[in-house]
TrEMBL record:
Protein species of origin: Camelina sativa (False flax)
UniProt keyword list: DNA-binding, Nucleus, Transcription, Transcription regulation
Record InterPro entries: DNA-bd_dom_sf, Methyl_CpG_DNA-bd
Main location: nucleus
Subcellular location field: Nucleus
Biased composition (Low complexity): 1-13
Positions of the UniProt region annotated as Disordered: 1-34
Name recorded for this polypeptide: Uncharacterized protein LOC104735395
Domain of life: Eukaryota
Annotated PROSITE patterns: MBD
Span of domain MBD: 65-127
Length: 127
C-alpha cells in the first residue's frame, strides 16, 4: 500500500514540474520582444549586436527584455536581458549593461548596480 502511494506521489511531482517547464517555454518571439524594448533597451541591443550576434544557435528560441517588462522592473534603464531556451527546455539568461558588458547572473547585476550606487559622485559647478 505504501509503495503504491509513493509511486503515485512521485509520478505527480515530475509531471507537475514538466508542466511548469512547458508553460515557461511558451514565450514571445525575438522580433516581438525587440519591438517591446524601450529606447534605452534598443540602444543597448545595438551595442550588443555589434559585439556578438544574438539568436544564432539553431533550435533555440531567444527573446530580449528590459526594465519595461514586469519581470525585470528591477533593472535600470538601458540594461537588457536575453533569455535563450535551448531544445532541452533549459533556460539561460544573459544580462547586458548599456555598454554591452555581459553578466551571467542576477547576482552579478545587482552587485554591479550596488557598487555603482556606492561610487556615484555628485559634481557641483559653481559659477
Amino acid at each position: 500500500m505504501d509503495a503504491g502511494s509513493s509511486s503515485s506521489s512521485s509520478a505527480s511531482g515530475p509531471q507537475q514540474e514538466k508542466r511548469s517547464r512547458q508553460r515557461r517555454t511558451k514565450g514571445i518571439d525575438y522580433e516581438s520582444s525587440v519591438a517591446n524594448l524601450s529606447r534605452e533597451g534598443r540602444e543597448t541591443l545595438m551595442v550588443v549586436n555589434r559585439r556578438k550576434q544574438l539568436n544564432t544557435i539553431p533550435g533555440t528560441s531567444c527573446s530580449v527584455f528590459d526594465h519595461s517588462c514586469p519581470r525585470y522592473r528591477w533593472l535600470h534603464p538601458g540594461w537588457i536581458v536575453e533569455e535563450r531556451i535551448m531544445p532541452s527546455d533549459r533556460l539561460y539568461r544573459y544580462y547586458y549593461d548599456p555598454l554591452g558588458q555581459l553578466y551571467n547572473s542576477r547576482g552579478q547585476v545587482t552587485q554591479m548596480l550596488a557598487d555603482t550606487e556606492k561610487t556615484r559622485a555628485l559634481v557641483i559647478y559653481d559659477k
